[in-house]
Write a structure and sequence with these properties.
By secondary structure, the chain is an alpha/beta fold. It is 36% helix and 12% strand. Helix 4 packs antiparallel against helix 5 and helix 10 packs parallel to helix 11.
């Protein structure tokens, strides 16, 4: 039962929390949508291959989340654009990290907004030859035309760095790895760390909660490599976020010495040596399902490989003995989702 007037007071409070700038953004978005409809400009007119390359470039320059990989692959499929993990890897290899943003940096996006916002970043990237300036946008103008009046790069600040002297060189944020443990690929969030190679014993967990309990119980040690499996698109189902285990590793002082490998995914706030989106996932019989406690795993960034250091004969024996666990939901929406969803390497979309 609510108190008299409580509903309207809450509405007023919520309204007061919306900034004038955000209100204007909403109005301009609606105006742009109406204008595009009148001009007959569709989403596919704007969402070209070049536009997806621009989106990935801006995301990586600002230290964007690993989820950008998943979402942009899915969007590309919907837009009927040919985009793969290998294409994304090519972009990550050349785009420097310009933003000094949390969780591995110091600042927040609001700090960037005060300096000139995303348009200023895009102008830096355009002038540096990283963006396609001829892409049409929702304004009806091209990227280059939109950025003609963008703010210039501000001096005497350490929120954003120039292309010529970036916060971290290319390849120090997001990397796409392959190898026998990720034949279709996986996504490494390096968070600016100067990691080249890492090798250690597998600590295997069948679900996120068990891994979290082991970390909090002091059972995980430097050089261990956590494997959390059956959390992928089908196994989760739905690719659960491993935010709790990753945060627990940081809290235990293990963020620089323990890697976490999963067929699930990570939050944008995740920090540490994190490898997600491992495909094929464990639920469908990917090599991740065959890892045994104590197996040696190698992360080799020089070769961009994630490898289980177990002989092929032994792996074949394990595969023969392996059986997929029952799907967690046998009926309802999640059961249907688990049956229909594709690999994370294809955006985890349903047919």
């Amino acid at each position: 039962m609510s108190m008299p007037g409580s509903s309207s007071n809450m509405a007023v409070d919520r309204d007061n929390q919306i900034s004038a700038d955000k209100r204007q953004d909403a109005r301009r978005s609606a105006q742009a949508l109406v204008a595009l409809l009148k001009q007959g400009v569709t989403a596919r007119t704007i969402m070209t291959r070049k536009a997806f390359e621009n989106a990935l470039t801006v995301a990586w320059a600002l230290g964007g989340s690993t989820n950008a990989v998943l979402h942009l692959l899915a969007l590309a499929r919907e837009a009927q654009i040919d985009l793969s993990l290998k294409d994304i890897s090519a972009i990550t290899a050349k785009v420097p990290l310009l933003g000094n943003f949390k969780p591995f940096g110091q600042y927040l996006m609001n700090d960037l907004h005060q300096l000139g916002g995303v348009p200023m970043v895009m102008k830096l990237l355009l002038d540096g030859g990283f963006l396609h300036g001829d892409c049409l946008t929702v304004t009806g103008k091209t990227i280059a035309q939109n950025l003609a009046d963008a703010s210039e790069f501000p001096a005497n600040q350490d929120v954003l760095f120039p292309v010529a002297a970036p916060y971290a060189e290319a390849g120090r944020h997001i990397r796409i790895l392959y190898g026998n443990l990720a034949e279709e690929g996986c996504v490494l969030k390096q968070s600016g760390k100067a990691l080249k190679n890492m090798r250690g014993p597998a600590r295997v967990f069948e679900r996120e909660e068990d891994a979290l309990a082991a970390i909090l119980g002091g059972q995980i040690h430097p050089s261990d490599i956590l494997v959390i499996r059956y959390e992928g698109p089908k196994g989760g189902p739905g690719m659960r976020e491993m935010l709790s285990p990753s945060a627990a590793l940081m809290g235990a002082g293990l963020g620089d010495s323990v890697a976490l490998i999963t067929d699930g995914r990570f939050s944008g706030g995740t920090h540490g040596i994190m490898i997600g989106h491992v495909a094929p996932e464990a639920q469908v019989g990917g090599i991740l399902a065959l890892v045994v406690e104590g197996d040696q795993i190698e992360i080799n960034l020089e070769r961009e490989e994630l490898s289980l250091l177990v002989g092929s004969a032994e792996l074949e024996q394990r595969r023969t003995a392996w059986q997929a666990p029952p799907v967690r939901y046998q009926r309802g929406v999640l059961a249907k989702y688990a049956r229909l969803v594709s690999s994370a390497s294809a955006g985890a979309v349903t047919s």
